[in-house]
Amino acid sequence: MDKGITPVTIKGLVPTSTGMAVFLGTEFKTFVIYIDPNVGHALSLAINGVKKSRPLTHDLISHLLMGLDAKLDRVIINDVDWDKFFARMIINMENELGKKIIEIDSRPSDSLVIAIQNKRPIYVADKVLESVDDVTEVFNDIKDQSGESEGKGPHP
User: Fold this and answer.
1) How far is it, in rounded angstroms, from Cα 29 to Cα 43?
2) Average pLDDT for residues 29-41, to the nearest whole number?
3) 67 — phi, psi (to 5°)?
4) Strand pairing class (70-81; 122-125)
5) Phi, psi for residue 72 in degrees, rounded to 5
6) What angle do CA 73, 34, 112 make, to 5 degrees?
7) Max Cα–Cα distance, the chain, nearest Å
8) pLDDT tens, residue by residue, 42-64
C-alpha cells in the first residue's frame, strides 16, 4: 500500500448554485471538493444505490473494466492546486499474460463515482489533507440544519 495516504469517506453532498459540494474526510478533518452538477447527480445516484434504466458514463466505465477483467483497486486524491484537485485510479488487471497495475489520471469527481459504484476505498495524499482547510464545523452546521442523522450527511 502507498505510504503517505489516508483513507477518507464521503460524508455528504450538498447542492450549490453551480453544482455540488462533496464533503470528504476522516474522523478528524473534513474538506470539500466542488464538482459539476451532472457528476454530482451521478455521485448521488451511486451513493444511494439507485438503479438506472440505461447506463450512464460512469456505469460504462465500470462495465468496461469488468469486461476487461480489470478491477479498480482504489482511488487516491493525490494533489491539489489552489481549488483544483487531482486524482489517480489504481486498476489491477490479471490475465494469461500476467498481472498489471495501471494508474490512470482522472478528475476526483469521476473517480469518486466509480469508487462508490465498485465499493472501493478512497484515499487522500497526506500532503493534500494537510493543505486543505478543515470545514468540519461548516459541514456539521449544514448537517444540523438539514436534520440528517450522524454520519450520513446531507444528500440531494
Assistant:
1) 21
2) 96
3) -65, -30
4) parallel
5) -70, 125
6) 15
7) 55
8) 999 999 999 888 888 999 999 99
Grid-cell match 494469461, residue found: 96
- The CATH code of the domain at 5-146 is 3.10.690.10
Other Cβ atoms less than 10 A from the Cβ of 83: the count is 9
Cell 459539476 sits at which residue?
36
Q: Which amino acid is at 141?
A: D
Task: Give phi and psi for 85, each to the nearest 5.
Answer: -100, 155
What are residue 137's DSSP bridge partners? none
Instruction: State the Cα–Cα distance between residues 63 and 114, nearest whole angstrom.
Output: 10
Residue 105 banded pLDDT, cuts 50, 70, 90: very high
The pTM score is 0.87
| Burial track 1-31 (b if 16+ CB lie within 10 A, e otherwise) | eeeebbebebbbbbeeeebbbbbbbeeebbb
Query: Sorting pLDDT into bands at 50, 70 and 90, what band is 148?
Result: low
Domain boundaries along the sequence of the chain: 5-146
